[in-house]
Amino acid sequence: MNLRSIFPILVSLACLPARAQTPVPAPGSPPAYEMAPLFQASEVLDPSLLAGPYHRVRESAYGDGYLVHFTIDSDFGTYECVGIRDLRRCVWEIQAIASLVAVSKGDLFAEGLRKSVEAPIDAVKNIVTHPGKSVKQVPHTVGHFFNKLGTSLDNAARKSAEGKQSSPGGEGKGIGDAFKNVAGFDKAKLECARELGVDPYSDNPRLQEEMEKVTWAFFAGGLPLRIGAAVVSTGASVALTATEVVGLPEDIYDVTPSELKFQDRKALEAMGMSPQKIDAVFANPNVSISVRHQMVRSLARLNGPGREEIINVIISCDTSWRAHFFRDVLRLLEKRGQIQPYTAYGAYGRLAVAQTADGTIEVPAPVDYVIWSEEVAGFANRVDLTSAKHRLILQGQLSERAASELKAAGWEIVPLP
Question: Which residues is 80 bridged to in the sheet?
């Protein structure tokens, strides 16, 4: 039996507990595992990310064994970010909020409000005088990278369907709540997001409120959106671009949410997913429209059997942060697949995996800094992995100990920017 034929068996075995035994260090020997380190933000971040006109990252940061946790103080609230990628996205959104606030203080915005005479005055007044409260986002952790998924598919689908689907922006009651069904408003908001280079379906409440406020003033007032000049005036770093930070496909801005839903459903049907599984993907309130579209888009470009296992992980994302992280996993897998084509796919815990033509199993890891922990050791020495060649596709860094131990366990480490 060749390795390709046993790939589905390996995937199913991955749900079993690791058989590696916890080593007991001899007296006077180094500890069996490393402790998650503390970091200085100024030592791991580019200056453009560390501070700007509207934000500053606190110097003290900590690792969870995979990603670094940062706290951002900004003019628009305090944000907890998990990982450098999450921090980049947050900094970019803070700069976008500043641009929108600058626009809302300008003459064109005032003119737009004056011209929107058909809009309910009380609703407009409410969003102008009571902008969104500063929000402190709840921190999350990667955790359980390689563990068995804790919730069955049926339970995940049921809970997602029962959960109340909140609109983008969470608790903020912006102008979009009252006017989201006005013909043309959705497209106007998409154009606003495009000019800012941000995710139109971001889960940042303050960003959503400011986008809706500015979009409504220009849209209802019959004026063309002019956000671009304000972006320059905020001092946004030239080191950051929307493509690098957000990585959104252009069609996010070109079609409405309902059109994206139609496209994604058709793409999943073309992959052979059942109607029940497709419904469960759309029912998960933790997967935003844009994140879902990006994940489906990546999967559609990864031809081969086993993608259903990856769909199961998408369905089981229990926080929006986990959905963002898994989106990054699939991006990395897609990027690697352009260099090394794959023949089959699967999932180990909360990571997608793929198999090459020669039977090698590759595991993408979009992380910051991995240490040699008990969890990583258990994964690296899995019995079901030792029967095949295996590579870690790394976007980030390993501690010296983790690199040494992984190589000793037979792992090939392939860095990918």
Answer: 71
CB 401 within 8 A of CB 371: yes
Asked if 264 and 293 touch (Cβ cutoff 8 Å), the reply is: yes
Instruction: Put residue 60 in one of left, alpha, beta given phi > 0 → left and psi -120 to 50 → alpha.
Output: beta
Say how far residue 277 (Cα) sits from the centre of its chain: 21
Positive/negative CA dihedral, 3, 6, 9, 11: positive
d(CA 328, CA 209): 26
Answer for the pair 128, 113: CB distance below 8 angstroms, yes or no.
yes
List phi, psi (to 5°) of 182: -65, 130
Q: Do 297 and 234 share a structural domain?
A: no
Helix (H) or strand (E) holding 238: none
- Domain membership of residue 116 as a residue range: 38-133+171-251
d(CA 341, CA 153): 29
Tens-digit pLDDT profile for the chain (417 aa)? 333 444 443 444 344 333 344 444 555 556 789 999 999 999 999 998 999 999 999 999 999 999 999 999 999 999 999 999 999 999 999 999 999 999 888 877 777 777 765 555 444 444 444 444 434 444 444 444 555 433 333 333 334 344 434 444 433 344 444 455 555 888 889 999 998 999 999 999 999 999 998 888 888 777 777 775 444 444 444 334 554 555 688 889 998 889 999 999 999 999 999 999 999 999 999 999 999 999 999 999 998 999 999 999 999 999 988 999 999 999 999 999 999 899 999 998 778 999 999 999 999 999 999 999 999 998 888 776 666 789 999 999 999 999 999 999 999 999 988
Classify residue 157: in a domain, yes or no.
Answer: no
Count of domains for the chain = 2
pTM above 0.85, yes or no: no
Using the 3D structure, point to which of 204, 230, 251 is the last residue of a domain.
Answer: 251
